[in-house]
Amino acid sequence: MASMSLRKANTRLPPEVNRVLYVRNLPFNISSEEMYDIFGKYGAIRQIRIGTSKETRGTAFVVYEDIYDAKTAVDHLSGFNVANRYLIVLYYQAAKMGKKTDTKKKEEELQRLQEKYGVGSAAPSADK
């Protein structure tokens, strides 16, 4: 056990590593107990959230108490076969999750506003 704590003290983790995991490609009928059985082998779990709506089915968030347990789970469970489905286990990154908006719609809205207010796409001048 002393060697494990020493390893943790000397290991520098990449910046994307955190305690929250985003899991995709789950079977739609997986239970919370099954999730705890699968992910609990790698450390203490604070919370598991399984997607239930039409858009979030087959996904879950798993929050570990310790960042090193989360890293171990990602290392061991990425590609793990559950009910003939291979899990995709990623570190949760809020910035990437928020970019799911449709950029084409935003560009069309910008174009519409530019035309409405007579503003061109050229950068504003620095006159003062």
From TrEMBL:
Keyword Nucleus recorded: yes
Any one Gene Ontology molecular-function term assigned to this protein's record: RNA binding
Entry-linked SMART domains: RRM
InterPro entries, sorted: Nucleotide-bd_a/b_plait_sf, RBD_domain_sf, RNA_proc/Spliceosome_comp, RRM_dom, SF3B6_RRM
The RRM domain, residue ranges: 19-94
Pfam hit, one: RRM_1
Biological process (GO), any one: mRNA splicing, via spliceosome
Keyword tags: mRNA processing, mRNA splicing, Nucleus, RNA-binding
GO cellular component terms given for this protein: catalytic step 2 spliceosome; precatalytic spliceosome; U2 snRNP
PROSITE patterns, per database record: RRM
Localization in the cell: Nucleus
SUPFAM superfamilies documented for this protein: RNA-binding domain, RBD
Alphabetical list of PANTHER family matching this protein: RNA-BINDING MOTIF PROTEIN, X-LINKED 2
Name of this protein: RRM domain-containing protein
